[in-house]
Specification:
It contains 19 helices and 23 strands. It has about 575 residues and is an alpha/beta fold. Strands 16, 17, 18, 19, 20, 21, 22 and 23 form an 8-stranded antiparallel sheet that branches. A 6-stranded mixed sheet has the order 1-5-4-2-3-6, sandwiched between helices. Strands 8-7-9-10-11 form a 5-stranded mixed sheet, with helices on both faces. α6 links the parallel β2 and β3.
């Protein structure tokens, strides 16, 4: 790769779009800004690639999109003519340049004789997964940066099973990307010509209808009265049609849409950033909820793979965490299946190693196994496929603490549309019994212990950020704590080396794939996990505690949080 100055000179010599040329001209005397844009290519991995929009190799733009599309095309080409004919499904969210990046991808694929199936309008990520499976495509791509701020966009790749990339698949694409010498020489074909030649197909509403038909299978109480009063916001994203139509098809008549946020707009003008995990994203939904007397508020992120939920409590609304909602859904699904006599003897619940242990206790009560995976829904999807092949387990539910859930396997990624419908049904079910979701959550705590979790993060920006983060993690590994907040560490799991060390020095092997994650299990079933983010320049610190009362648990959580901050100074 050329040095930074050679790269910027090369870029400036190209007939760039005016907005990219103007950006480079503006920063021409700012060495730090130039360095940040050109010191590397936007990194690509199993989560695809995600980054700031802008000019340079370390930004999301038409040239870095062509580069990853070329890598994908060469990979597909290497797998023969059948793979090329099966083609790639392309979907995109409502962000700036999402549609343009999807078209650029199709243009590069078409130059290799690879078919593309493109949605005419923005569609949710889970619908992309569904469509890959439905059309028997060889791969899928969705242009999205999920819940990141408006300045970001991304490129996520899916395999023929509709799941995100496995490491082997990602490494193949990286191999071909690294062979590209000149990103300005990547060949494209005009979309209109590709359409005439049959290499581009624009997807119509029949696939929307098939997805909605599949969603209808989620309804577990067919005769239940659905009088729940609901407010829903798509946060300017792609979830509006499938969520609102799905709720109405389920039988919910009182569904109020936050109209200001129903407008698809990559500026996300009504929120600081479109993350349904954050209370600020619910401000307009809460305001509408108060006006219409709503019992339940639902919010999806721009690509509708994450769902946030708020429940009425007195005169206000309380947001549920991802761990809390996952536990509620798991209990509702298992108890409903048990009542209907459809709970299999070999049932399994899948969750990530950084997700609360409350779900595991619930599963145990119903005779359902819990299997932990590494962080990332691709690992949950991988297990689903494995169990379909082996028959070892029957999949019942999968979730992660970061507001991602999957119920039915016609999708192989987290699906906020599925879950929005199931949450509404669950809330209506408990309302008939005179309970809210908060009441039911408290019932679970009384039975299984009060669980509470927190997520801390430390930013590592710029060229030296990755190295600084690695130094911090190595320092932690070299000096593993024996106690945290006066709680003994009983077990230290290091997934990078694939082993666990017990307090007495005994070493045990770990069965999960190797990844840069450390997890500490404390003496009272509390735990801490440390891992670098797969999509952002930060290190995350996950904390889970358990106690006999809400107050005791909150106090313990604060103590452990403070201890973690001291450790990573």
């Amino acid at each position: 790769m050329m040095n930074v100055q050679e790269l910027i000179n090369c870029w400036l010599a190209q007939p760039l779009p005016s907005y990219l040329a103007e950006e480079l001209t503006t920063i021409s005397s700012d060495e730090q800004a130039i360095e940040d844009r050109f010191y590397q290519y936007v990194s690509f991995g199993t989560g695809g690639m995600r980054g700031l929009l802008g000019a340079g190799t370390n930004r999301m733009n038409i040239y870095t999109i062509r580069r990853v599309a070329e890598g994908l095309a060469r990979y597909i080409e290497s797998n023969g003519e059948e793979a090329k004919q099966r083609g790639v499904v392309l979907a995109y969210d409502t962000r700036h340049f999402s549609y343009e990046f999807a078209c650029e991808t199709a243009s590069v694929l078409g130059a290799h004789g690879i078919r593309s199936y493109i949605y005419k309008e923005a569609r949710p990520t889970p619908q992309l997964s569904f469509t890959v499976r439905k059309l028997n495509a060889y791969a899928g791509v969705v242009i999205t940066a999920s819940h990141n701020p408006k300045q970001y966009n991304g490129f996520k790749v899916y395999g023929e099973d509709g799941a995100q990339l496995t490491p082997d698949f990602a490494n193949e694409i990286i191999h071909y990307m690294n062979k590209i010498k000149d990103i300005f020489a990547i060949k494209e074909e005009e979309l209109a010509l590709l359409e005439q030649q049959g290499y581009v197909t624009w997807l119509a509403s029949d696939l929307d209808n098939e997805y909605l038909t599949s969603l209808s299978t989620l309804k577990s109480n067919q005769d239940m009265a659905l009088n729940m009063n609901i407010v829903y916001t798509p946060l300017h994203g792609a979830g509006l049609v499938p969520v609102s139509e799905g709720l109405r098809a389920f039988g919910f008549q009182q569904v109020h849409i936050v109209e200001q946020q129903a407008v698809q707009d990559g500026e996300f003008p009504t929120v600081p950033y479109p993350n349904p995990e954050e209370s600020k994203a619910f401000e307009l939904a809460m305001k509408l909820g108060e006006q219409v007397g709503a019992d339940l508020l639902l919010a999806t992120d721009p690509d509708a793979d994450r769902l946030g939920v708020a429940v009425k409590s007195g005169n206000s609304y309380v947001l549920l965490t991802g761990n809390q909602l996952g536990a509620l859904l798991l209990h509702y699904i298992l108890s409903t299946k048990q009542q209907h006599g459809t709970l299999p003897q070999n049932g399994v619940m899948l969750k990530t190693v950084v997700t609360s242990e409350l779900g595991a206790h619930i599963a145990e009560k119903y005779g359902v196994a819990t299997v932990n995976t590494l962080t990332g829904f691709k690992y949950i999807a991988e297990k689903i496929a494995e169990y379909e092949r082996t028959g070892e387990y029957s999949y019942l539910f999968g979730y992660e603490e970061s507001y991602g859930y999957l119920i039915e396997t016609f999708v192989r990624d987290k699906d906020a549309v599925q879950v929005a419908l199931k949450v509404a049904e669950m809330a209506a079910f408990y309302e008939m019994q005179g309970h809210t979701l908060l009441d039911q959550l408290d019932n679970l705590y009384k039975e299984y212990g009060y669980h509470n979790e927190a997520l801390l993060s430390q930013q590592f920006e710029g060229k030296n950020g990755q190295a600084e983060m690695e130094v911090m993690l190595q320092r932690l590994r070299d000096n593993m704590p024996k106690k945290i907040a006066n709680l003994a560490v009983l077990r230290t799991e290091d997934y990078l080396v694939g082993q666990a060390v017990l307090a007495n020095g005994t070493i045990e092997g770990l069965t999960l794939p190797k990844e840069n994650v450390v997890k500490l299990i404390l003496e009272d079933d509390s735990w801490i996990a440390i891992r670098p983010s797969g999509t952002e320049p930060k290190c995350k610190f996950y904390i889970g505690v358990v106690g006999e009362t809400a107050e005791q648990t909150q106090q313990k959580l604060e103590q452990v949080k403070q201890a973690v901050l001291e450790i990573v100074k």
